[in-house]
């Protein structure tokens, strides 16, 4: 794993955007895996700024998002489709039909999960997957205990996840209890992974990830077995004392 510690959230977002832009320039037909939540918002802002200032084009890029709440249609401001359109897609030149997100209002979740996996396979998989991490180690919406072999599936959200994500909803009662998420096996098939970690509340998760333990009770721990992972974290997530131990290197 490559680990890069940035001064703050702003620098972290800039560093993540720089990597994404580099990959898109090298391969304008890239397939990007994208994430939602608070962490990647700054990265998306940087991509939009770069698109306007430097003209980086996404015309031939395809994107697959990690997850979507079950029961929320794309028009719902709390759906991840709505989030992605508002935070990124509507501000760059990507073709909206090339932005794939699981359908949260499907009548048949089994078929929807299979369809998503097939679309991914038809595209040859994800070139670069952007990830965040939950405080309990979830990646996508894969909660502790999810099989490392899992493919796109329906999950019951952990109560801690519901609580954490309630900040985006008018009330905690309105947070959906289930979601469709790419599986851990699906995520691990990505050729390259970029994990963003920001804030002191993620410090414990980072420490557990870097302990090297690989355990289904801590989903992100599987990243220790991926051959091409970069972790970008800000100082707050790294912890002040940890700075010298894991400074900008490999371990
Ligand atoms: O970036 P945040 O808001 O801390 O979320 C962390 C992770 O949690 C999720 O939002 C799911 O709860 C993921 O999509 C995200 O990567």
UniProtKB/TrEMBL annotation:
<dbReference type="InterPro" id="IPR006148">
    <property type="entry name" value="Glc/Gal-6P_isomerase"/>
</dbReference>
<keyword id="KW-0378">Hydrolase</keyword>
<feature type="active site" description="Proton acceptor; for ring-opening step">
    <location>
        <position position="138"/>
    </location>
</feature>
<feature type="domain" description="Glucosamine/galactosamine-6-phosphate isomerase">
    <location>
        <begin position="10"/>
        <end position="226"/>
    </location>
</feature>
<comment type="function">
    <text>Catalyzes the reversible isomerization-deamination of glucosamine 6-phosphate (GlcN6P) to form fructose 6-phosphate (Fru6P) and ammonium ion.</text>
</comment>
<dbReference type="InterPro" id="IPR018321">
    <property type="entry name" value="Glucosamine6P_isomerase_CS"/>
</dbReference>
<feature type="active site" description="For ring-opening step">
    <location>
        <position position="143"/>
    </location>
</feature>
<feature type="active site" description="Proton acceptor; for enolization step">
    <location>
        <position position="67"/>
    </location>
</feature>
<comment type="similarity">
    <text>Belongs to the glucosamine/galactosamine-6-phosphate isomerase family. NagB subfamily.</text>
</comment>
<keyword id="KW-0119">Carbohydrate metabolism</keyword>
<feature type="active site" description="For ring-opening step">
    <location>
        <position position="136"/>
    </location>
</feature>
<dbReference type="Pfam" id="PF01182">
    <property type="entry name" value="Glucosamine_iso"/>
</dbReference>
<comment type="pathway">
    <text>Amino-sugar metabolism; N-acetylneuraminate degradation; D-fructose 6-phosphate from N-acetylneuraminate: step 5/5.</text>
</comment>
<protein>
    <recommendedName>
        <fullName>Glucosamine-6-phosphate deaminase</fullName>
        <ecNumber>3.5.99.6</ecNumber>
    </recommendedName>
</protein>
<dbReference type="InterPro" id="IPR004547">
    <property type="entry name" value="Glucosamine6P_isomerase"/>
</dbReference>
<dbReference type="InterPro" id="IPR037171">
    <property type="entry name" value="NagB/RpiA_transferase-like"/>
</dbReference>
<dbReference type="GO" id="GO:0004342">
    <property type="term" value="F:glucosamine-6-phosphate deaminase activity"/>
</dbReference>
